[in-house]
């Protein structure tokens, strides 16, 4: 009992900064000297790389079908909410039922009961990644003892300074409520300006991401990727939340880089972005003109096939 309480207290202390909870004895800092930027590559290079990869995903016929999984989910939502409106049910009840129907649809697609062979299409997208970027990555068992899952380069070689992965999840401004989502949640990433990204693909976090994405849909076109909530990703880059912290044996080979997706980002490619705002509006701007925070993992050196990705959960930028 005492041991259980002590474990709970240990998790409680660190739950808002879960990366600090790991491996305290072996922790290593990524230190960015005064005057230098935290950015490993420029924003222009980062955006160019993402756009190039997303364009390739989009241009392959079968991949369009795969990205249509999002579309199917949204369409089901529209038909359902139309019916609900006709029945003149309360708004709250609409939302709940609509959500449940969408979840059922989503799960059946994932279980492959729908006519979409997502396993084959996921593998194809990995091949596109290899062709366009020269490497592919996948979530695998970590090399670390008790490290759970990690992310490995499963094909090709990652050059230095490449966008390797994206950190998916719901974006919370520093003043937005994240308490319940944060309990026992080791996937909450804290940006330098205090913005949080909840990359947990299970439980309440999953429900919040889904409902936020449905809320923000513009017309019938999907604007966010939902498939990172499953093991069959439209965008194979969206596994950044599974990258483990570096250790003495495995020094960091990737670093987090924060980036803003602005209005200039091609609308047709937004369906590959694995992030959504928790709130529909910010303090200053309307949703349609609001930037979207994206966190990318950038390689710090060449990374060979078979190597696991390791980041630094502790980054200090000296001011
Ligand atoms: C963001 S998650 C990374 C994915 C995680 N490995 C999993 O399977 O879900 C962070 C958690 O991974 C584990 N982890 C990360 N780096 C580690 C390390 N160097 N040694 C041991 N465990 C680590 C810890 O349990 C930590 O709370």
From TrEMBL:
CDD domains: SET_SETD9. SUPFAM superfamilies: SET domain. Gene3D superfamilies: SET domain. InterPro entries: SET_dom, SET_dom_sf, SETD9. Signal peptide: none annotated. Residues 133-314 form the SET domain. It comes from the Eukaryota. PANTHER family: C5ORF35, SET DOMAIN-CONTAINING PROTEIN 9. This is SET domain-containing protein 9. The lineage of its organism: Eukaryota, Metazoa, Spiralia, Lophotrochozoa, Brachiopoda.
């Amino acid at each position: 009992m005492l041991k259980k309480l002590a474990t709970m207290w240990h998790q409680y202390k660190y739950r808002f900064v879960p990366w600090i909870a790991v491996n305290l004895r072996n922790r290593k800092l990524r230190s960015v000297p005064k005057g230098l930027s935290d950015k490993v590559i420029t924003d222009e290079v980062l955006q160019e790389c993402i756009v190039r990869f997303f364009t390739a995903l989009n241009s392959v016929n079968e991949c369009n079908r795969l990205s249509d999984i999002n579309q199917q989910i949204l369409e089901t939502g529209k038909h359902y909410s139309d019916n609900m409106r006709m029945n003149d049910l309360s708004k709250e009840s609409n939302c709940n039922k609509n959500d449940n129907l969408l979840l059922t649809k989503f799960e059946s697609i994932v279980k492959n009961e729908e006519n979409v062979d997502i396993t084959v299409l996921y593998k194809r997208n990995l091949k596109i990644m290899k062709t366009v970027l020269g490497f592919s990555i996948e979530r695998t068992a970590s090399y670390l003892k008790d490290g759970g899952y990690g992310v490995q380069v499963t094909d090709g070689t990652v050059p230095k300074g490449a966008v390797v992965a994206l950190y998916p999840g719901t974006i919370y401004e520093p003043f937005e409520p994240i308490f319940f989502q944060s309990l026992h949640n080791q996937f909450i990433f804290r940006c330098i300006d205090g913005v949080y990204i909840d990359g947990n693909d299970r439980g309440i976090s999953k429900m919040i991401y889904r409902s936020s994405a449905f809320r923000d849909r513009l017309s019938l076109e999907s604007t966010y990727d939902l498939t990172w909530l499953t093991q069959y990703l439209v965008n194979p880059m969206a596994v950044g939340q599974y990258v483990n912290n570096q250790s003495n044996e495995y020094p960091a080979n990737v670093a987090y880089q924060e980036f803003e997706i602005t209005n200039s980002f091609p609308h047709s490619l937004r369906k590959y972005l694995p992030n959504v705002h928790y709130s529909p509006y910010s303090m200053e701007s309307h949703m349609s003109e609001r930037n979207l925070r994206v966190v990318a993992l950038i390689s710090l050196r060449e990374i060979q096939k078979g190597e696991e990705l390791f980041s630094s959960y502790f980054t200090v930028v000296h001011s």
